[in-house]
# Entry
Amino acid sequence: MLKGHGWLSQFKQRMMYGFIILIIIITIALFGIITYTSDSAKENSRRVFESALWNTLQLQVQTYRLLNYLVLLKAPDLPLNGQAYFEYDLLMSRIDLLRDGEVGTLVREFEGGRTTRLLNIMNGELELLSFHISKLEEDDLSYLPSLIDRIQKLDPQLNEFVGLVNNGSNAFINRQHQIQQTKLHYIQLLSIALLACLLCLCFFMAKSFSQLRFAHARNKQLKADMQNSRSDKADLLGFINQQVRPPINAILGTAKTLNQSSHSVPEPLTKHIEESGQQLLHTIEMLSDLSLLEAQKLSLQPSTNELKTQMEVFLELTEAQMSRKNLACALYIDSALPDSVHLDFGRFKEIVLALLQNAIAHCPAGSISIQLRPSALAAPTVLLPDGTYETRVMQLAIRDTGLGMPLNLQQSLRVNPNLPNQADSPDANTVGLNLALCHQLIYLMKGEMHFSCVENEGCEFWVDLPFYVPAEQEHPTDIVPITKTSQPQKTALILEQDMNLAKIIELQLTSFNIKVSLVQEEDGHSPLDQFDLILLGQFSGFDSHLEERLLDCLKAGTTLWSYQTAEFKNSSLDCKALTFPLTQRKLLPLIEALFLGQTKQKDNK
# Structure
C-alpha cells in the first residue's frame, strides 16, 4: 500500500516544501517594502519638501525686507556700517539654499526646469546689485533710486518663481502619495498572499498531524501484533522443545548404552551420535531463549552452584570439537572468586558455549585460553536475593590464537544496546545464532562485552557479569599450598612456544604455590636439573641434545610432564601424559601425588 502511493507522498512533500519557500519569499518581499516605506524615508522626503517651500517663501520675504530697508534709508542713517551688506547677504543666502543640496535637486525638477531658469535670472540680477550696495556703504545715495527700481522689477519674476515652486510642490506631493498608495496596495496583496499560504500550510499541517496520529496508531498496532507474533513464536518453540527433548534424550541414552555394552558398535559412532544429540538440544534451547528474548518474556532463574564444577562441565561439551582440531585448551579460575556463586548458570552456560564455539570456528590450529577473575567494574546496585549478602562482578576472558573474525562481524558485535543512540542487538542472520543469543544475554544480565581481534593472531573476548555471593561464603576460600611452609618452594619449567597457553598453565601452577619459569627458545646451556617439574609442550627446539639433558634431569629426580606425547613417542623420554582441557582440578591430584610423594621419600631417607 505504501509503495503504491509513494508518488503521492512525494508530491505532497514537494508541495509542502514549495509552500514553505513561497512563504519565505513573500515574507522577505513584504518586509522589504515595509522597510522601504518606513517612517524614516517618509520623514526625509517630507523634510526636503518643506525646506524647498520654506526657502522659497523666505526668498520672497527677504526680497521685500531688503526693498523696505532701501526705501526707508535716508541721509541721516549714514554711515551704514555694513548694514546694507548684511541685508544683501541674507537675501543671497536664500538663493544659495534653493540651488544646492537636496532642496536644489527637488526645485530643479519642478515645472520642467522653468524654476531653475528663473532662479538663475534672479541670481544674476541680484549679483549685479552688489555694486550699488558697495556705493551705499560708501555713503553715496545717488545709486539708491536705481537700486530700488531694479529690485522692484524682480517682483514679477519672484512671484512667478514662488507660484511655480508651489505648483511643483503640490505635484510632488501627489506623486509621493500615489507611490505610497501603490506600495500600500502591494503590501495588501502580499499580505493576502501570505495569509492564503499560511492557511494552506495550516491545512497541510493539520492533514499531516492527522496522518501522523494515524501512523502512530498503526505503528502501535503493528508493534502489538509483532509482540503477539513473537509471543506465539516463543510459545511454539517452547512446545517444540518439550516435544522434541524426550526423543532426543532417548537417543542419547541408547548411544550411551551401546557404548557401554559388549556389542561390537564402533565407539566413534556412538560418540558422534551423542555429540550430535547434545548439539541439537543446545540449538533448540538457544532458539527458544532467543524467541523469548524477542518477545521480552525471558526471565533469569539464578541458582547457587560451584563455579569450577560448572565451568568444567561447559568445557566437556566442546571437548570433542576441540580434539578433532587438535586445539589446546586451558582453564584458570582466580582464587579470589568464591567457590560457589548465585547466578543463572543456564544462561551463563549459553554465553560460555557461544564464545567457545566462536573461538573454535575461527581457530584452525593453536590454543584457547579461558580465565575467570574478578572484574574492575563496580557492581550494579540491585536488590539482593534471599540467601546472598553481596553483589560482585567477575570477568570471563576467552582468547584464541586463530585467524580472527571478519570486520563486518566485529562491527555488529560492538553495539551496546544500553547506551543512547545505539542500534539494537545484532540478529542471528548477521552474527550467527550463538553470538546473537550471547550478545543479548550478556546485556540482559546487566553485563558488558568487549573484544579485540588481530588478523592471523586471534581474538580475545572480555565479558563482565555481575553475580551474587551466597551468605555462607562471605570470604573466598584460599587454596592450601601443596608444600609446607617449612620446605623450600617448588619450581617448574614450561617449554612452550604458544604463550597464550603457557601463561594460563603458569597461573594454574602458581595457584598451587609453585614458582614457574617460561621458555620459548632453549639456548642449550641453561641448567634444567634445578627444577622439580618440567612441562614439555609444543617446542621447536627439541633435539637430541635437549633429549639427553632431559634424561639427565629424570635421573636426578625431576618429573617430566607433556601434553604432546605423540611427538615424543619415538624418544626415550618417560613423560607423564596430560590431556586437554587442562584445569586446576585436573592438575591438583597430579601435583599432590608428585610433590607429596617426593616429600615422603625425602622424609624416609
Summary: The domain at 299-470 is CATH 3.30.565.10 (Heat Shock Protein 90).
